[in-house]
Specification:
Layout (H helix, E strand, L loop, with lengths): L3 E10 L2 E11 L4 E5 L6 H8 L7 E6 L2 E2 L5 H6 L2 E4 L11 H8 L5 H14 L1 H4 L11 H13 L5 E5 L7 H16 L3 E6 L2 H7 L2 E6 L2 E7 H6 L1 H7 L4
Parallel strand pairs: 3-8, 3-9, 6-7, 7-8
Antiparallel strand pairs: 1-2, 1-4, 4-5, 9-10
Helix pairs in contact: 3-6, 4-6
Bound molecules: adenosine-5'-triphosphate.
Length: about 240
């Protein structure tokens, strides 16, 4: 079985079938990307893996254990952390306090390690530890969201649309960080509309369309796939 194994996952919101039998795998050490248009079901998949939504069917297994339907805090403790779409930082709290909240399942020593790691990965955040997070720039808020997700020292980090609304130079910086985090031993599952940059750093990827996976391949294969180029790479 793969490190993260998703089998026939189904997510419904009332009568809406948002995810209709999705299966995919992430192996230990990989960066894997899910690309797809708005409303394809990517966030629903990430939220279900994280325990925020209960699936209508299918299974999620991580590191040899079936974690389907487990509570979110149990899943964090098991080594999976989500950096959610839209960052979801706590705007009235400082950068430092936001980071500490990411360590809500961690020991004081692990919290200290996490704070140091965030400071090392994102020197700009370190300079702003005492700033109220709502006044950070969009890029800084995204760095904070990533730093906060890393506080639980996850084995697998899930990043949902980290590039949303950010300037290309900031996106470049963030993606370099993701590669670094991965090289330091964290497996990454990434959801992105910025398909070009995402596929560039990914070992493999899947295309999600209307709640289903229709195309899969290595990052290179997908970047060269005619359908993917036309639909997600602006026909480049
Ligand atoms: P985006 O890139 O725009 O975030 P996505 O691929 O992440 O899109 P989802 O957010 O998973 O897609 O949404 C999949 C489908 O489920 C959409 O049709 C959406 O309207 C619907 N949906 C998502 N959340 C809810 C909800 N809480 N209640 C009802 N429908 C929902």
């Amino acid at each position: 079985m793969a490190y993260l194994q998703i089998e026939n996952l189904q997510v419904n919101y009332g009568a809406i079938k948002a995810v209709q039998g999705v299966s995919f795998q992430v192996e230990k050490g990989e960066i894997v990307t899910l690309i797809g248009a708005n409303g394809a079901g990517k966030t629903s998949i990430m939220n279900t893996i994280s325990g925020l939504i209960k699936p209508a069917g299918g299974t999620v297994s991580f590191d040899g254990k079936d974690i389907t339907g487990h509570k979110a805090h149990t899943i964090v403790k098991g080594g999976l952390a989500l950096c959610p779409e839209g960052r979801k930082i706590f705007p009235r709290f400082t950068t430092y306090e936001n980071l500490k909240m990411g360590g809500y399942t961690s020991s004081p020593e692990a919290i200290n390690r996490g704070i140091e790691r965030a400071a090392e990965l994102f020197p700009r955040l370190k300079e702003r530890f005492n700033q109220v997070a709502g006044t950070l720039s969009g890029g800084e808020q995204q760095m904070l969201a990533v730093g906060r997700a890393l506080m639980s020292e996850p084995k697998l980090l899930m990043l949902d649309e980290p590039s949303l609304g950010l300037a290309p130079i900031v996106v470049q910086e963030l993606f370099e960080c993701f590669t670094k985090i991965n090289k330091e031993g964290t497996t990454i599952l990434l959801v992105e509309q910025n398909a070009s940059m995402a596929l560039d750093i990914s070992d493999r990827g899947y295309v999600v369309e209307n709640g289903k996976i229709n195309i899969s391949g290595t990052g290179k294969e997908l970047a060269n796939n005619d359908k993917v180029r036309e639909a997600y790479l602006g026909g480049l």
